[in-house]
Amino acid sequence: MGFLLNLLDRLLKVGQLDHTSRAGDEVFDQMQIEQISSCNSVVDGNVEEVPNKKIIKFNPPLYKQRYQFVKNLVEQHQPKKVADLGCGDVCLLVILKYQKCIEELVGVDINEGRLKWNGSRLSPCVGDHLDPRELDLVITLYHGSVLEKDCRLLGFDLVACIELIEHFNSEDLAKFPEVVFGYMCPAMIVISTPNSDFNSLFPSAVFRDSDHKFEWSRMQFQTWALDVANHYGYSVEFTGVGEPPAGAEDVGCCTQIGVFRKKAKATESAVLEHHGEHVYEVIYTTSYPSLQQMNYRRRVVTYLVYREVNRMKRTCQVSLRQHELEPESADPGNPTRKFISDLPVPVLTEADKAMEMTPQPFCIGDKFYVPLERIIAYPRLGHICGNVEKLREFLADVVELNCNGSAVKVDLHDCGDY
Amino acid sequence: MSGRARARARGMARSPSAAEVGLIQASQSPLSVALSDSEASSSSDHVGTSRISQKYEGGLSSGDAGCTFKERGGKIRREMMDLSVCTREKLAHVRDCKRGSSGIPVKLVTNLFNLDVPQDWQLYQYHVTYSPDIESRRLRIALLYSRRELSNKAKAFDGVILFLSQKLEEKVMELSSETRRGETVKMTITLTRELPASSPVCIQVFSIIFKKILKKLSMYQIGRNFYKPSEPVEIPQHKLSLWPGFAISVSHFESRLLFGADVSYKILRNETVLEFMTDLCHKTGMSCFPQTCEKQLIGLIVLTRYNNKTYRIDDIDWSVKPTHTFQKRDGTEITYVDYYKQQYDITLSDLNQPVLVSLLKSKRNDDAEVRMAHLIPELCFLTGLPGQATSDFQLMKAVAEETRLSPLGRQQRLARLADDIQRNKDARFELETWGLYFGCQMSLTGRVVPSEKIIIQDHIRQPVSAADWSKDMRTCKILSAQSLNKWLVICSNRAESVTESFLNCLRRVGRPIGFNVDHPKIIKVQENPAAFLHAIQKYVDPEVQLVMCILPSNQKSYYDSIKKYLSSDCPVPSQCVLAQTLNKQGMMMSIATKIALQMTCKLGGELWAVEIPLKSLMVVGIDVCKDAFNQGMVVVGFVASINPRITRWFSRCILQRTTADVADCLKVFMIGALNRWYKHNHGLPARIIVYRAGVGDGQIKTLIEYEVPQLLSGVTEASSNTSPKLSVIVVRKKCMPRFLTETGRTLQNPPLGTIVDSGATRPEWYDFYLISQVACRGTINPTYYNVIYDDNGLKPDHMQRLTFKLCHLYYNWPGLISVPAPCQYAHKLTFLVAQSTHKEPSLELANSLFYL
Asked: Of A142, A397, B46, B654, which residue is the least packed, with the fewest Cβ within 10 Å?
């Protein structure tokens, strides 16, 4: 009974602690499972079982702090290829897939069922097709052991091993550095593991998870880490997440983290020997639409051009029938004015000024023309197309141009104003 | 548009508790109203013993993305409800054979695929309990799926009910799973049922399997269908993307299990709500922007940029900006800007945009909590066609051109889908583990019944084309016509000359067909709806036979106000013509002919007939349509023939308050129609055949229990000794099967009069498909007929051919139409009332087709 209450309690707390918010999306359901599966390794789970002692709660939950730590590393170092070893329920990958700099994201785990079950969480959503990313992104989930070498994991910029090593027995732990540091040899490795110094704050003397083979003190971890780093030519910095409560600062963070960075820019190993073995089994793979893909690029360009042309056309139409329009409210405090920034306000931005320098749109008869040079001055289009020739190429066969191909041609009056 | 939902959203958003924008809960009362409509079907299974079993009873999940049957299952279950109504076994004359015999056999290709299961195949249903009990559905699933005993088995599990294709060794199996925290959870799996492949539950499981398979083929489920984003059709000038995809279903047809797929397109707009708003703001100007914006956006469905969810916009909160904060579940405050940056690495460009408010439907039926989501316009894509797009000819044309598929094109898409299913490794694996075999496309034999002859004044002729005999009509006298002696024409000053020349034309075309038109009184008025109405009120007297209005524009208010006044307040047949139509050069004669024929009908005339072998038959069409203005109001139309030749009609219509599209007051209508018949024919008809359109899924039972008795009691009450015999046929224009004929190397639409009464029909019903219309481009949709009640005992062949004959009798179109004429009349009548008049038409007009 006590156990049941406890569990119930925890489930309730899961709800409280965990829900990120619902601003627009129902992350709740999603996060709940993340929490449940991840909270297996969240310390406060154990603590609760002895109700007399003070419960240590982390806010945000510890597992989230760890993911946030990796996310911060990504934001800071902008890696292109990132792997998560022991990715489990792929929660970290779900967070990282939104990072614009990443082009390849890999998860490896020994539990095939969980990868299969969770793979679909990584697939591109409808919005990714309508508004594609700037860079390609390929996500792959491999079923396999981190202790086996697979050449598809060579050449990574960041490899994360979050709460992984404490699940190894001593034999496996001995093999681990050779594979990850020696073979994969990524530019950066982040390893997190429980800090047993912190365990003194917990009531029970057991490990935080029944599958843990060991839990290291800071000294033990740092010794191991420095040793490995020296051996494979990495530097290492130590940090952690899960601040200790006031008065117990000397135990250090609940989770200790080592960030390893490769010392020498190993240019020779950059020439990757890709004809190694494929040991891992691909469980799931997906490729995101991106502007690198010609069909998506052309599509985005076309839509942007239509949008800009229509916008200019609208301005033109307004000025043509100015007298018919009601005078704009002169009241500066008029609340409606602030609803949307993107209104014909007299303040010119840099981009607007640049735009002013380009040839003006014009009308001939009932046709409205916008010179390509003006269109390309629109920053986003300029960024995607580069120059007028490229733009013209993109628009060929899709958008009507004038006879010398220097301007987009549309009807001045659209029949269907909805 | 739901005004109530909006008010509710408003009320809540602005209530004091809205300070924490997070999750706002409201009391039970307002929501239960809102949800009861859509989730009524699930209320019946609240019989479980524990809370959890209540929640999951009857619902299943596909097991991967966690989409529960519960959420999307409404339709499936309603279809299932229909299938449980076995009407055929009560109809002795078709119990053994419901197939017709006349006509020439024709080989047809369908969009149905054989789905084979081994003879002894069974589905095993288990009940799973957890000790200690666990509430989270995902955790329940995760724990069970982690067991090796089950990992390689084909399974579907929703947290409570587990389906397996292979029996477990023991009837009750106890498994324990250890969470990584070291807690042991005991799971007890108990066998509850063994189901044969024909069981409705299996059909549900098969549907889930195919949902999974289509997802494996990189398709996205949006709503009920599956779409492929990798091959979009782009219409950039209208900011539209069309995603091709399929509507799929698995069901038991005549003798076997079939998988059906039909091509479908999802319309997505390449426009965020913010872009739409900005655009609108430029168009409307500032002063009326918020109102216009709300008017145009509320009720639309948006798709969020960062996940696959769709939301309905219920309100716009202009007071909240992205820079404002909201409270997360953990109690911390965060601004929307920071939230989206942190969560999705999205930078909002416009910090002044308002937020959209959407009321979230609670997934749990028993839950009383209303949740609201705030959405950022910049991160929401619009879906569906823009509001007034249907009147945008260019846009509709562009969409139609892209989506209309030739028979061959459609077949190619289907073949590719079948190929993908058979080739994809995961899809094949899924089918194999369940023991299913995806077979070939089904062909069947239909029959083409002989074409009908048209009877026009004294002679019978075989039209040159059965699809359109308007040319044949020009020189022939119609069956009967009243001459038009006293009538009014109301037009604007500008349209005077065009009106004059039109009237000349009308007289000219009227003479050969036997319709005499005298000179009308012409009234010139100003160009506004009020002036037209005023003139009508002033000049219409009881002598006036008909009022014609030459409208200066297709502004709805002209039409609506005129029709409302002249069909209810002062019942006189009316004819509205757009001045613009009369300006079309070179088409005047054919336009005038069409209008002349319409006017004849409105005055009670008869145009043509077909040969009806049954000498004393009344046919009835019933349709139901939702009122465009008043929510909760439906319009029921009832149109009955009142002569044996089936050329004269009695039309009644009523507005009724109801949530289901089930007609009330049919008894009164039936008595009225029979009395009218009696008056004209001095006796009652021997047979009555009712065609009922506008039937939703899952309503067949209600029809049988509620509408048929009403009709029967009407029949009994109106007759003294022997009552006429009654048959009731449900007519559906939308159905899954499509039929194509192979000619040489290509595929074509089947010929007119093709009947299918085997293979794609249901064993438990007396049903058939009929193709009675042509499609110049695109693929024909057959019309589906289901005879749910039949005292007449006509041979299936006669029933089918009679139905085909009735498709010839719609006087607004000199050709064949897709449904029997009485259905189309009833539809036209309800449409007029639901869209324009919102008022029951006067009984005085019941004898004429005033609504054409």
From this structure: A397
